[in-house]
């Protein structure tokens, strides 16, 4: 494939737009949820599923989506993913019940699992090497990093000046642009050879994680309840069966050699922990800003930005430090710094001031997250054979989404337990604030666990922990 692919910069624009849509949809509804909950009559437990359904379907199906893109055709997969994503977004935007909205969000995540790997694979084969490739991936990566922040701000604008439903309906505009651009400028490509789908593996891992997350969501009614234990046990059983299947099939969805490596396994675990905090804890911060502090949607969206800004400012510094000190020190200290920020946030009060009680915590978290994110992709790809690079990179993203799904379910159980323990009937601002504080402290404990994992498992010479040459970014 020649680097001088015709219309390659227009192709980059189309694919970057796709990446933006997929990433921002993980956060755009966060600010809209209080309005959606009130209009559709969602309980606090159902409310978290509007976010969980998207993240769970996206994370659980991402590996299969990469295989489909490679085997069936990347452009074809991209276009089908776009159409499906648009239909699911429109359905969610006109949903008349909470169940409809949750199901639509699940379909959004499923089609995003086709879009994301197809877009990155197309970028990989369009820009094969040299300065153009570096520029293309820099643009793509920057948009991926800024997408969550864009989603929060755009969600705030649409919710405040239009309606929460436009947080989903706006995707139809992006989809139309992406479809036209994809048809005109994107070239087809696919992997050659004997390609077989691991459908049984895909089914067991998807149902396994789904059962696990649902079991955790039922924990708000009691950890010892039969349905809670039953779904958690079913999830563990299905995931165990998935591991067994992966040892037997010729072309596994997830080659186990990828995750059994000590360093890579630690990286995947820490990525899941980062997802727990970035998806779970930050959602409850959005609730505190709007429901307790009474910030309008736009202000609440802007109030979350310091976290992203701090990450973007510190990331270049961490990038320069990485080859000097290696990934281990960053991976140990980064989670501790994030935990310190969460402990600071746990001190919120119902009548507190954002600039005193929230802003410093977000900035501290941003510094720590930058130290985690910078070495994480390197560690996930260290020592990976070229044939496994796509699966390793895809599983890194899956780990964050699935970690966020599980974390959000557990945090919801913690929150509802604290609020119910207050015994005040309808939740008061003070009771809700106590629930949010418990969530932040839980997030801090999880981040400390991440630091312990890094200290115990990420070992070896600095040179051995840094991949040689250019890391493969293909997700297929």
What does this entry look like structurally?
The structure is a single chain. With 476 residues, the protein is mainly alpha-helical. It folds into three domains: 1-187, Up-down Bundle (Growth Hormone, Chain: A), CATH 1.20.1250; 199-241, no CATH class; 254-476, MFS general substrate transporter like domains (Growth Hormone, Chain: A, Up-down Bundle). The protein is 78% helix and 0% strand. It has helices spanning 8-24, 33-40, 44-72, 74-93, 98-126, 130-161, 166-185, 199-218, 226-246, 256-260, 262-292, 297-303, 305-325, 327-345, 354-357, 359-381, 389-422, 429-457, 462-465. It is found in: Cell membrane. The chain crosses the membrane at residues 49-66, 78-96, 102-125, 137-158, 164-185, 197-216, 228-245, 266-289, 301-318, 330-348, 354-381, 402-423, 435-458. One of its GO terms (cellular component) is plasma membrane. It holds the Pfam family MFS_1. It comes from Herbiconiux oxytropis.
Jot down its keywords.
single chain, Growth Hormone, Chain: A, 0% strand, disordered C terminus, 476 residues
> How many structural domains?
3
Question: Could you describe the largest sheet, including whether it forms a barrel?
Answer: none
What is the share of helical residues? over 70%
How much of the sequence is in beta strands?
Answer: under 5%
3D shape: globular
CATH superfamily name of the largest domain? Answer: MFS general substrate transporter like domains
Protein name: MFS transporter
Domain Major facilitator superfamily (MFS) profile: 11-462
Membrane topology: Multi-pass membrane protein
Transmembrane segments: 49-66, 78-96, 102-125, 137-158, 164-185, 197-216, 228-245, 266-289, 301-318, 330-348, 354-381, 402-423, 435-458
